[in-house]
C-alpha cells in the first residue's frame, strides 16, 4: 500500500505516497483546508473546538502546531490529499503531547471521506514511516469513546486498548502498539 518514501526537503517538505494518497507537511497555504477541517462537525464533536474561526487563526494554528512540531521533533501531522486530484481530504500524523509518555498517531478527515479506507491507508503509511525512518518502537493512539469509526480504525491498525485517560476536557480511550 505504501509505494515510496521521499523524506527529503522539497517545496512541500517530504512526501509519502500510497496507492491513492499523498501525505506531506502542512504549510501556511493549507489554512483554508485546516479552517474547514477544524470546524467540521466530526472534529467539533469528537476532538473539540480549537477556537479557530478565521484564516489568520488557521495559519497560526498550523505555525504553532504542525510546523513547530516538524522543527522540534522531526514529525507532526500531515496533510492527506487524493493522489489523483491533489485535493486535501484530511490529516494523519504523529504527535508528541504533554502528559503522554509516547508519540501518538492522530487522524481526522473531512465529512464525505470517511468509510473509504483513506484513514487506514494514510495511517499505515505513517506507521511504516515511524518505524522505518524515525526508528520509533512504540506508538499510542487515543480517541473519544463514542467515536466508533476511530475505535474501529485504531483496532484495525493493530493497536491494543490499554486504559481510559483524561486528556484536556475529554475522557479518551488509550491504545498502544509496538512498531519497531
Secondary structure: elements and pairs:
Elements: E1 2-6, E2 15-18, E3 21-25, H1 31-38, H2 41-46, H3 55-73, E4 77-82, E5 88-95, E6 104-109, H4 118-132, E7 138-143, H5 148-156, E8 160-167, E9 170-178
Antiparallel strand pairs: 1-2, 2-3, 3-4, 4-5, 5-6, 7-9, 8-9
Helix pairs in contact: 1-3
Keywords: Transferase
Protein name: GNAT family N-acetyltransferase
Organism: Spirosoma rhododendri
Describe this structure as you would to a colleague.
This is GNAT family N-acetyltransferase. Keywords: Transferase. Residues 21-180 form the N-acetyltransferase domain. It comes from Spirosoma rhododendri. One of its GO terms (molecular function) is acyltransferase activity, transferring groups other than amino-acyl groups. The chain has helices spanning 31-38, 41-46, 55-73, 118-132, 148-156; strands spanning 2-6, 15-18, 21-25, 77-82, 88-95, 104-109, 138-143, 160-167, 170-178. The chain is built from five helices and nine strands. The chain is globular. The relative contact order is 0.15. It has one domain (2-136): Aminopeptidase. The two termini are 19 Å apart. By secondary structure, it is α+β, with helices and mostly antiparallel strands. Mean pLDDT is 92; it is low at 1-10. The strands form two sheets. A six-stranded antiparallel sheet has the order 1-2-3-4-5-6. A three-stranded antiparallel sheet has the order 7-9-8, with helices on one face.
Amino acid at each position: 500500500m505504501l509505494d515510496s518514501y521521499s523524506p527529503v526537503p522539497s517545496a512541500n517538505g517530504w512526501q509519502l505516497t500510497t496507492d491513492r494518497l499523498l501525505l506531506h507537511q502542512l504549510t501556511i497555504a493549507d489554512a483554508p483546508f485546516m479552517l474547514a477541517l477544524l470546524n467540521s462537525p466530526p472534529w467539533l464533536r469528537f476532538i473539540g473546538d480549537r477556537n479557530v474561526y478565521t484564516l489568520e487563526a488557521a495559519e497560526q494554528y498550523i505555525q504553532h502546531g504542525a510546523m513547530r512540531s516538524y522543527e522540534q521533533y522531526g514529525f507532526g501531522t500531515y496533510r492527506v490529499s487524493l493522489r489523483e486530484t491533489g485535493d486535501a481530504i484530511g490529516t494523519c500524523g504523529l504527535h508528541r503531547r504533554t502528559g503522554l509518555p509516547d508519540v501518538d498517531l492522530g487522524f481526522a478527515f473531512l465529512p464525505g471521506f470517511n468509510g473509504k479506507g483513506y484513514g487506514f491507508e494514510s495511517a499505515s503509511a505513517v506507521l511504516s514511516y515511524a518505524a522505518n525512518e524515525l526508528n520509533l518502537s512504540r506508538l499510542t493512539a487515543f480517541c473519544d469513546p463514542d467515536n466508533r469509526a476511530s475505535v474501529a480504525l485504531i483496532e484495525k491498525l493493530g493497536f491494543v486498548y490499554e486504559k481510559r485517560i483524561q486528556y484536556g476536557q475529554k475522557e479518551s480511550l488509550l491504545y498502544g502498539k509496538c512498531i519497531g
